[in-house]
Amino acid sequence: MTETLVFASAVDPVEPWRAALEALLPDVRVRTPDEIGPGDDVRYALVWKPPVGFFARHPGLRLVTILGAGADALVGRDDLPDVPVARLSDPEMARMMTHYVLFAVLRYARDIPAFEAAQRAGRWHYVHPREAREIRVGVLGLGELGGAAALELARQGFSVAGWSRTPKALPGIACHAGPDALIPFLARSEILVVMLPLTPETRRLIGADAIAALPRGAKLVNVSRGAVIDEAALVAALASGHLGGATLDVFETEPLAEGHPLWTMENVLVTPHLASVAIPASAARQIAENIRRVRAGQPPEHRVDLARGY
Ligand code: NDP
């Protein structure tokens, strides 16, 4: 019997997902909400921030897959059915994220923003490069994406520390865990990379006190969710010079509002939430495998714990 997977995303084009999933699952039709008709038996959903009321229209769902890694957009919804929710777990997504983090950290480690400013002023501005092992990078969150980025930074020779909720052991990385370890961890991080999920515990975790604990002139890279950082405290620290710069891919409100101070700050690089995206060719294999598992009565892999928030 043919089943239907409903695909809902305002940012991802459906066609590559349709092609990749239908090739792997010949008895599953991939439909957008507009394409669904009375003959569709909607069993699976692949979603990125679906509109309010979306799930109530599909009472036969057996598996919801998030078209990404963060579950925050689904937490707290009252229309979510009582079925497993899985995230994408895709090495290609981790690779794309690692590239972004590596770019942002290398840009600071090699003083590139200072050279960009000097060039605009027509000024020859020599800064003697530091060795990577002297540069202390901190990664907040050592999950699938955070762990991969931290390992690559260590492979590049940086002095890397990481912080997570539960204790971790990653080769070449000084691992710290739990709330008491946060401030000492921040105090040693001259480049801080934020890779935490947005949960009730992490919302605005990086506020004025946490930012003050960073060394003066520290650089911050946020690729997780905007609301993990108190944006007003961030702007104040960038304006005062306590923070030397920030590379921001995510914001409390997206798109970043017209006229927001972050748009025009000299020491800020803004990118529009694309540090990593879901890649159909590789991620479809995981989704297909989970559908096979659900059909066989097995629990899907890479489940999100909605009570925990990630
Ligand atoms: P995971 O869920 O795999 O890992 C989360 C990590 O954060 C874990 O190490 C976890 O600790 C840690 N953590 C969670 N809560 C706390 C807490 N209260 N205190 C300390 N540590 C905590 O996430 P990923 O690495 O896959 O992704 C991270 C985030 O990146 C996603 O949630 C998403 O929001 C964002 N993202 C952004 C993208 C972009 O384009 N900008 C693209 C994809 C993802 P523990 O290991 O102990 O569980």
From TrEMBL:
GO molecular function: NAD binding; oxidoreductase activity
Signal peptide: none
InterPro entries membership: D-isomer_DH_NAD-bd, NAD(P)-bd_dom_sf
Location of the D-isomer specific 2-hydroxyacid dehydrogenase NAD-binding domain: 104-275
Keyword list, A-Z: NAD, Oxidoreductase, Pyruvate
The protein, known as: Glyoxylate/hydroxypyruvate reductase A
Protein's organism: Methylobacterium radiodurans
